[in-house]
Structure formats: C-alpha cells, structure tokens
Amino acid sequence: MKDLIAYIAKALVDKPEEVVVTEVEGEQTSVIELKVAKEDLGKVIGKQGRTARAMRTVLSAASTKINKRSVLEILE
Amino acid sequence: MQTYEFQAKTDEEAIEAACRQLNVSQDEIDIEIIEPGSTGIFGLVGGRKAKIKVTLKAPEAPEEPPEDEEGVQVAKEALENILALIPVEGTTVTADRSDGTINLRIDGDKSGLLIGRKGRTLDALQFIINKIVNKSIEKRARVLVDSEDYRQRRQDFLIQMALKMGDKAKKIQKPVTTNLLNPHDRRIVHLALRDDEELDTKGRGEGIMKKVVIIPKKQNASPGRL
C-alpha cells in the first residue's frame, strides 16, 4: 500500500526525493501518511482535491483486494 | 544542425540573401540577428552591416512521432507500475496513440477490481495517468484507460438509459432527471438525445458531477423556465 502511494506521489511531484510515506497499520484499517515538499502540496491534492481523491480511490481498490481498509492522510 | 552567417546592408536584405543562397523559404530557417544594420549618422559615419545567423530547421515531420511515442511509453509504464503495486496479477496493458489521445487497454482483470463502482477506479487511474503523462511531455495528450471494454459497455448503457428517460419525459410531459454524472457520461446523454426534436437536455448542479435534465419541448408554448 505504502509503495503504491509513494510511486504515484513521486510521479506527480517536482521533488520526488522529498516524498515520504509512512504506514501505520491497525487491525483492520491502516493509515497512510504522505508528506511532500511544500511546493508540491498542491500537486498531490489537485484542483478541488481531485488528485487526492483519485489516489484515495486507487488506494481503496488496492485495499479491498486484501480485505482491508486504508486511509490516506496528506500531511502539511 | 548547420548554421550560416550572412551580412548585408539591412536585416531584410541579409535574410533575403540567405534564403536565396540556401535555396529555402523563410519558414524553413531560424534567423538570429547578431548585429542589426545601422546606417550611421546621416548615412555617413559609423554605418554598419547587418549580420545574421541562419540555422536550417530540421524538417518537422520526423521530429513529432518520437515525442508522441514517448508519451505512450510513459503512460504504459506508469499504468503497469501502478497495477503491479496494487497488486493485480495476470494483466497486460496495450497502448496506442491516435492524434492527441493515448489509449490504454487493460486485459485480464476478471474481477472488475480496476473498474470499481460506476467506473470510479478506472476514472481515478485515468486521471492519475493523465497527470503523470502531461507532466513529462510538452504537447498535451489525453489519456484514456479502459478495462474489459468497460467504456463501450458504459456508453451503450447510458444511451439506452437516455432514450428510455426521453420516452418517459415525452409520455408524462415533465422533465426527467438523471443521477449525478461525470462530464464524459453527461456528454453521452446529451449526444444521445441531440437529434430528438421533442426533447431538450440541460445540465444541472455544481462541480464536476452534475445531473442531466431531459425536458420535453412543449408544443406551441412559451420557452421553458429551465
């Protein structure tokens, strides 16, 4: 899950080296925290949050596959 | 790339001379003015010749296809990488490009996992790939992602639904409203009913998702409120 978000985020931003993804695993739900360079924040969120929503959709599809739930948090 | 230098009294004359000598039209060369010509004071003192540098432009045709192909490659790789990380196994991605559109087809996802409810996952993948591709290439390209012919099936379904709702609107002589649809789906509904002269279609709502209202045109009545 973590690698998936890291890959997408790195492909979207200008400073891929500053992308940091951490995963806090719970029993059923894991929280994935995404941190990017300040200038890149808009790129991972997108207009009206479209990019963030798209990432969450892909993430939830991936989690369904392993019968889990994942939440994506974008940290400032 | 070859460059040549030319000198003449004025810029224009230098360009003309360049075209004549290289036997090309002005569109086929890049012109860089090194020194603009100057007639000096009263054309007497300090007159300088204009100096220009001319570069033959490479023919345009061979330059573009590689650029297009590059977009296709980027799109295909990005999608394959994402699929591998989800992870889905046993899928293959085929890609081609026609005009400004890159078509990506995913084969082998039998579960419909990649399509999602109402194509949401497919749309999300498409959106992300679009972003990634258009970040790396200069000319904007549209990326379409399809799996198991979902796009075609969805289009057929939407057209059927539009026609059915259109019939209903005519029968009850009242507007009929669809569910919230994305722009692509709305377009299909509008187009499906465009040629029906008894019906009007309008979008309603705010944001990306809107409803389509199908309105029966009243015979010899005032224009509708909508």
Give structural notes.
The complex is a heterodimer of chains A (76) and B (226). With 76 residues, chain A is α+β, with helices and mostly antiparallel strands. Chain A has 3 helices and 3 strands, in the order H-E-E-H-H-E. Chain A has helices at residues 2-12, 41-45, 50-65; strands at residues 20-25, 29-35, 69-75. In chain A, strand 1 and strand 2 (29-35) form a beta hairpin. The longest helix of chain A has 16 residues, at 50-65. Chain B folds into 3 domains: 3-56, no CATH class; 67-148, K homology (KH) domain (GMP Synthetase, Chain A, domain 3, 2-Layer Sandwich), CATH 3.30.300; 153-216, R3H-like domain (Ribosomal Protein S8, Chain: A, domain 1, 2-Layer Sandwich), CATH 3.30.1370.50. In chain B, 39% of the residues lie in helices and 24% in strands. Chain B is built from 5 helices and 9 strands, in the order E-H-E-E-H-E-E-H-E-H-E-H-E-E. Chain B has a 3-stranded antiparallel beta sheet. Chain B has a 3-stranded mixed beta sheet with strand order 4-5-6. A 3-stranded antiparallel beta sheet of chain B has the order 7-9-8, with helices on one face. In chain B, helix 2 packs across helix 3 and helix 4 crosses helix 5. The longest helix of chain B has 26 residues, at 60-85.
